[in-house]
Design a protein that fits this description.
Length: about 250
């Protein structure tokens, strides 16, 4: 469910998650076509479910066939991360589009831009092949954007297996490609994202990101989404000797 849309008159980006009830009601009272879907520039319908989640929907028959619905957990993580970054003084945007030099489109779940740095934070709740991680990550890398993945903890083992195979390793070391806190993938790091809460009802206190700390590596430290985002923006993730990703906090 897209959380952002374009105001048809001003061209401003409107964020459904950052509006008061009064503002949302005022927007719904505006003429049809006042807000546009960002991907297609077609009229958007303003929607809200019983949990209070707001979003923008395409009209029937006008949706993007390549767009895949996102889960409540995915949207929860996007909103918590972008709000935490903004509260800490960083410029962060949600559903940020961009293009590679060859013209391939990408859309970051959360995009951080600060002092010349550009970081895309991608949230992956469903299973995905490692080839797809590589393909999507290379779009960012070619665009001069670093990418960090938050992977559903239930699928993180599949990510580590693909990571090892992509580097030509024949055997799986204990606990995957993380040894003494060093992640052995040169192009992009990933961290397990845990939702220990009822499906469809995510909560801050029961949502954590696992980071690997040197020199032990495992066991891990659990961070809230807000702490992870702010520490990432403050430089906790570093690329060591062109080989390893290290988290220092």
């Amino acid at each position: 469910m897209p959380l952002t849309a374009i105001h048809a008159t001003t061209g401003d980006i409107v964020e459904a998650f950052d509006l008061t009830a009064e503002q949302w009601a005022s927007m719904k009272a505006e003429a049809p076509g006042s807000y546009l879907i960002r991907r297609s520039n077609r009229p958007a319908i303003l929607k809200q479910n019983l949990r209070g989640t707001r979003w923008f929907a395409a009209r029937p028959g006008e949706g993007d066939p390549n767009w895949k619905p996102t889960s409540p957990e995915h949207e929860f993580a996007q909103v918590r991360i972008v709000k935490a970054l903004r509260s800490a003084g960083f410029a962060a945007r949600i559903e940020e589009p961009g293009y590679t030099p060859a013209g391939e489109r990408w859309e970051a779940d959360v995009f951080l831009e600060d002092a010349g740095r550009k970081i895309a934070i991608e949230i992956q709740m469903s299973q995905q092949t490692f080839d797809e991680y590589e393909r999507r990550s290379q779009k960012y890398i070619q665009s001069g954007v670093k990418v960090v993945w938050l992977v559903n903890s239930r699928h993180f083992h599949n990510f580590t297996l693909g990571c090892l195979r992509s580097n030509g390793w024949g055997l799986l070391p204990v606990n995957g490609p993380v040894v003494k806190g060093e992640q052995y993938h040169r192009d992009f790091p990933a961290f397990p994202l845990k939702f220990n809460c009822p499906k469809g009802e995510p909560a801050d206190e029961r949502t954590h990101v696992s980071v690997f700390l040197p020199p032990a590596g495992w066991p891990v430290r659990e961070l809230s989404l807000a702490d992870f985002a702010v520490q990432l923006a403050n430089g906790a993730l570093t690329h060591s000797r062109g080989r390893f990703w290290l988290w220092k906090s």
